[in-house]
């Protein structure tokens, strides 16, 4: 019953706040800047309100305060998710308000993310039960790795996941839908393994994302921006870390792994051979340029995300 209430409250806050947030962002002229290096069809999205990640991260601390207020694990997750959201918000603000096309410098973003990830990892590893333990995929048991492995791996997972979702956020509804699928996985995982906090945070985010998708599905009325994508990536890794499922994260977030790999492969291939493997990276643009409608790319990639989540559960 608690988890149903969590989902309903989170959905209603997100769904209800969107009609308030969108006009405010539009009035402030916080519109998306579409770079001309992408598909030409995306130029029509220029000026669409961004920073929409606020819509689905606002419900989280409210839900935690109402349903899991005494959980250190829950507030650690709120700290991580909101910390990455603030970094993303600063990046978005510099891009759309101060007209700095690249936003925060890469070094600035990396340092801020590294500090947040290190603090989160230290607290979880030292103050939460079973902190440095990893569950193995496919029911192969668990291993105790110790701090010297646990710390670096966890920090890399947070940094990698945050930026992988950011890379994936290129089509209407793509990143939001794929992350919602992963959040449902963590919600049921927490339920099955009696991690109530994991279920509460994951289902709150899943429900909030569903409320957000009403306004983000093609044609999007608002984009999540770095405010949302960095927060969602941090949420995925954070949930994996506190539920000891970090080694399952590549399966749960398989779409984000593939999207990131497509960029890496494209860059390496072009630098070594002068040739491109894909028409354009990330890979969702490759399918767009191959003639797939945006809605088809998104629906197929969502289905791929579902398969990854099912494989992780198995």
Describe the model.
This protein is mainly alpha-helical and 314 residues long. It has one domain. The chain contains 13 helices and 2 strands, in the order αααααββαααααααα. β1 and β2 form a beta hairpin.
Topology:
Blueprint: H1 2-27, H2 53-57, H3 59-67, H4 72-96, H5 106-127, E1 133-135, E2 142-144, H6 147-168, H7 174-192, H8 196-216, H9 225-242, H10 249-252, H11 254-273, H12 283-289, H13 294-313
Antiparallel strand pairs: 1-2
Helix pairs in contact: 1-3, 1-8, 3-8, 4-5, 4-9, 5-6, 6-9, 6-11, 7-8, 7-9, 7-13
What descriptors fit this protein?
single chain, 13 helices, 2 strands
Summarize the structure.
By secondary structure, the chain is mostly helical.
Distance between the ends: 26 Å
Element-by-element helix/strand order = HHHHHEEHHHHHHHH
Number of E-state strands: 2
- Which ranges are low-confidence, i.e. pLDDT below 50, for 5 or more consecutive residues? none
Strand % is under 5%
Instruction: Name the structural class.
Output: mainly alpha
Shape: globular
Report the sheet with the most strands, covering strand number, pairing sense and barrel closure. 2 strands, antiparallel
Query: Count of helices?
Result: 13
Instruction: Describe the strand arrangement of the main beta sheet, using strand numbers.
Output: 1-2
How many structural domains can be distinguished in the coordinates? Answer: 1
Share of helix among residues? 55-70%
The Rg value, from CA coordinates, equals: 19 Å
Mean pLDDT: 88
């Amino acid at each position: 019953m608690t988890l149903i209430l969590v989902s309903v409250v989170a959905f209603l806050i997100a769904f209800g706040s969107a009609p308030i947030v969108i006009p405010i962002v539009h009035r402030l002229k916080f519109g998306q800047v579409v770079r001309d290096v992408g598909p030409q069809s995306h130029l029509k999205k220029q000026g669409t309100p961004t920073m929409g990640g606020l819509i689905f991260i606002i419900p989280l601390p409210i839900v935690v305060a109402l349903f899991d207020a005494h959980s250190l694990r829950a507030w650690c997750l709120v700290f991580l998710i909101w910390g990455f959201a603030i970094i993303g918000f600063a990046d978005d603000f510099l891009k759309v308000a101060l007209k700095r096309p690249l936003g925060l410098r890469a070094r600035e973003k990396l340092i801020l993310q590294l500090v947040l990830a290190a603090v989160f990892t230290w607290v979880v590893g030292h103050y939460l039960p079973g902190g440095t333990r990893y569950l193995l995929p496919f029911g192969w048991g668990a291993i105790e790795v110790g701090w010297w492995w646990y710390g670096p791996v966890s920090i890399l997972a947070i940094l990698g996941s945050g930026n992988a979702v950011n890379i994936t956020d290129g089509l209407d509804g793509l990143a939001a839908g794929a992350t919602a699928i992963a959040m449902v996985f963590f919600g049921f995982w927490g339920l099955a393994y009696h991690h109530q906090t994991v279920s509460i945070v994951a289902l709150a985010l899943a429900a909030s994302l569903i409320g957000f998708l009403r306004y983000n599905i093609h044609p999007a009325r608002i984009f999540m921006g770095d405010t949302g994508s960095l927060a969602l990536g941090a949420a995925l890794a954070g949930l994996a870390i506190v539920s000891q499922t970090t080694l399952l994260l590549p399966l749960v977030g398989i779409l984000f792994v593939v999207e990131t790999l497509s960029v890496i492969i494209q860059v390496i291939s072009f630098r070594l051979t002068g040739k491109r493997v894909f028409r354009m990276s990330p890979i969702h643009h490759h399918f767009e340029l191959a003639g797939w409608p945006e809605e088809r790319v998104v629906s197929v990639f969502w289905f791929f995300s579902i398969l990854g989540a099912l494989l992780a559960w198995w």
